[in-house]
Amino acid sequence: MKKVLVVRCGALGDLVYATSVIDALLMEYGKETIIDFVCTPGSGKLFRNDPRIDKVFNLKHKKIPLMLSLEKRKIVQYSKQNNYDLLINFEFGKQFKDLLTSIQAKEKIGAQFNTVESNSKINRGEAQKLLLKPKISQKNLQKAYPSVHTLTKEQIDKKFNLQQEYIVLSPSNSHVNCSGINHRAWDNYAWHNLINQLSKKIQLVIVGTKNEERFFDQLRPFPTNTLDLVGKNSIEELCSVVKYAKGVICTDSAVGHIAAAVNTPVFVLMGPNNPATDSPYQSPYNQVHIISANLDCSPCYKTEVMKQCKDNICMHQISVAMVMNELKSHLQLD
Q1: Where in the chain is the domain with CATH 3.40.50.2000?
Q2: What CATH architecture applies to the domain 153-331?
Q3: What is the rounded distance in angstroms from the CA atom of residue 41 to the CA atom of residue 132?
Q4: pLDDT tens digit sequence for 197-247
């Protein structure tokens, strides 16, 4: 095995799940293996300085047919000129079929090539690893976990005014700008309360993207001892800030998956999502703590139950006290 192309064009959290394929390939076929990725432009920035990845193809418009897509044709043309040994696909959507069929590779595995039975009881990161079984040994699959490239502590400290110990808070998620109810969101007043309490004990670092400024304006002004990094860092810097944190608090979002990938204790507030499948990937080296009201109607994500829910009760019933108790138990906060 010399050259591999991986297709994963989902959101940032989905791409973090898929990074377990990198170490799996390197362990199976050696450190000389060349690994390329097809990603969305935003998520693909995860690999900007990752020495394990050779080339990243941006695919912004996934639904445009191959004949009308310059992005897709460039990928196909490159595959014809560079002789991929293996194509690994993590995308199930029909909009990828023409691209996957046209890419030149000696072997093709993954979604749409080999069948894996769906299982609502295993994590999505683990489910993605099952797609690799035709070409990766069980021994190496068991040792492969999501991982991302980060900067050194000195590089991060030089740019951001970080104290020796701090906690990262990620109040937003990918649905923050959608119309209607964001069923994965925690109440703003609860975030206010938590931020005020925690900032008296330890430095807080608030993270989010620039296009989420309107949401964060509802939480501002932040108290003293709080560093506002919303829209002020690259993905690589975000991963690095998360890596050196004492812990991370978030709803179901990419930041939670990043925290698990860099082995920072993560506390995820979950309501409608299924903790078994959607939580950050649990490995022998990290700590993933799910905070949930455990209502009978949960999980309900993408079901009629969620569509009919108007008050987001599963998230409302997660109290600040519940979060503080979890933090005190696992992070030894005074």
Answers
A1: 3-143, 153-331
A2: 3-Layer(aba) Sandwich (3.40)
A3: 24
A4: 999 999 999 999 999 999 999 999 999 999 999 999 999 999 999 999 999
Question: Parallel, antiparallel, or unpaired for β 288-291 and 266-269?
Answer: parallel
Q: Is the pLDDT of residue 290 over 90?
A: yes
What are residue 248's phi and psi, to 5 degrees?
-130, 135
Q: What is the DSSP letter of 202?
A: S
CA distance 99 to 116: 21
Exposed/middle/buried for 118, CB within 10 Å: 0-12, 13-18, 19+? exposed
**Helices assigned H by DSSP within 123-228:** 124-130, 138-143, 153-159, 188-198, 213-217
For residues 169 and 250, the answer to whether their CB atoms sit within 8 Å is: yes
Tokens found for residue 279 = 């939580």
Cβ contact 150:50 at 8 Å? no
DSSP 208-246: --GGGHHHHHTTPSPPTTEEE-TT-S-HHHHHHHHHTSS
Q: Cβ(248)–Cβ(264) under 8 Å?
A: yes
Q: How far apart are CA 334 and CA 202, in angstroms?
A: 10
CATH number, span 3-143: 3.40.50.2000
Q: How many CB atoms lie within 10 A of CB 64?
A: 15
CA distance 246 to 165: 6
Long-range CB contacts for residues 52-59, cutoff 8 Å, separation at least 24? 52/22, 52/23, 52/26, 52/149, 53/22, 59/9, 59/99
Half-sphere exposure of 179 (CA within 13 A, CB side): 0
Q: Is the pTM value of this prediction over 0.90?
A: yes
Residue 71 corresponds to which tokens in the numbers above?
């992005």
